[in-house]
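ok so i was messing around last nite and threw this chain in just to see what happens. nothing serious, just curious
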Amino acid sequence: MSDESSLGNPDPATEAAAPEVWHRVHPLTPILESLGVLVGIFIAAAYGLQNFFQSAVEDLASGRSVNLTFADWLRSHPLVILAVVGGIILILLLTALFSWLAWRVMGYRVDAEAIYYRRGLLSKKLRKARLDRVQSIDLQQKLLPRVLGMAELVFDVAGGTDSNISLKYLSKKRAEELRDELLAAVRSRRQEHNRTEAAPGLPGSGSTENGSAGPDGAATGAAGFGASGNFAAGPPGPAVSVPDTGGQTSAPGAETGVDRSVPERGGDSLGVRLSKRLGSLADDVSGEAESSLGDLLAPYHLKPRVGEEGEIIRVPVHRVVVASLLKTETLVSVAVVIVVVIAAIVFLALGIKEAFIPMLVGVLPGVFAAFSVFRKNLDNANFVVRLGENGLAVNHGLFSTSRKVIPLDRIQAVALHQPLLWRWAGWWQAHYNIASDGGTTESNLLLPVGDIDQALLMVGLSLPDPQLPDDIGADTLVRSAMYDRKSAHPNAAAAEELFHPQPRSSRLVDPLVWKRRAYALTDSMLVLRLGVLDHRVDFVPHVRVQSLRYYQGPLMRALDLGTVAVHSTAGPITPLVKHQSVDGAKRFFTEHAERTRIARQHFDAAAKSAHTHRTQTPEEDEG
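result:
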């Protein structure tokens, strides 16, 4: 029988009689979670000191003596000081007692169905994450927990961020062990579930006909148009059962997202296809990975190199620092501070001394805001992407660190973004939307800042083969989307012919962007070219489209224009085919709806065929 913390398969009678075993989190967890209150008290005290300092400086600047009436009063009433000190000590003791009691009731439990997390001294809370709904498990370390050797496990559960569970805090070693156990368990059971789904006549086996859910939970089969004008393609979601691993653990970075029991399919992203090829190899697969990666990325004409432990991208700290300084929000914050300081100096030169000190003190919040923006971007320092048998393992963080595995087969859309001042260096940023993840832009980063080859590498790994004509390479299409008519690629003119620009009548509503904005359709994906000052390119595979919506506003109706929204899952990417002619927009709506339906049918049919072939082969061999 396995131990209490394992996910083994004990005897049913013993399991029924076994009590629920709860494991406590790290004893410092309540204290770390109450630090926000202490920080608030510190900020309030700092604000009071700032006011006193400002008044003292103003008094000195005007030739008056500093008002120390309150300090003199405290000096003459020492009992008040003792009472304040005693009150602070009492508050600290009560906080320590409350933290200890809170820690006693905090804990987690794992069984064959889910992980449970309970907390709350006065108000009890119990959160549950079903293992068959877990998308990924991220290990995060903020600065103070990292110093103390503690880590947080974040369970991304299908249904959005409200259904996620954050397990705070465990020792780093225990967090890594628990993460590996759960990921291996979910992956093992998912493969078993897929084999069961494909076996004909078995109880609970699923069908992929007439719009029912396939192995990955996506609605398949015939999709139609509703009264609202939406084309339903059905959101993909997990549909796996609970694992049985006998307490075995997987290698770090194991992930539930890539099902290697299904052979490669045309709709799979290149990264998923690569993960399936490497799944059966040993840990040291750099040579084989480099060969397979180069083979799959041949349409992009890249020569990727796989370093130690599968490393394919490393973003140096200095590049992240420079890129963050060149972002618009950082520049605006710095510009505001500079303008205020210059204005204060002008007032001083004009003899208005009363305004000089308050303006200098008042600029401090602007300095803090600029620093906050800069520090947030530093969270992406030391960004490392490693190639493993289960997908892309991403590590990043300078002070606080985070480790996660991106489930490539759940990526719904990818976007490349280039701020105005990044053009001189040729840098790009890559984001993604992922199924059942309502994460923010920062958590949905494929690449915080990288050169053109790194951007093409991440796009290639995250998307299926673009399936272009023989005379146009994938890199030609992507470069044309990134640089439009300024692309220096020799075959850029042929790629540009694939793009459908906005009509001239749209220049009234898009005076700056109408010449650049365009869309292109390949056999596997939609490509959107956007932006003038900040360049942007969106990629949406046909097989991942959730639905389509055509709409017209009053002004668009007057200009004979229409827009089609291509719905993806929640995330930083919201694809829109904007301001096309009415006929062109309606034609795109109809044709693209049919493209997505056929793409999904082929994708699911390939999976069903592969499963059926695999389950029938042993019987044929026995015959």
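not much to say yet. The longest strand covers residues 134-141.
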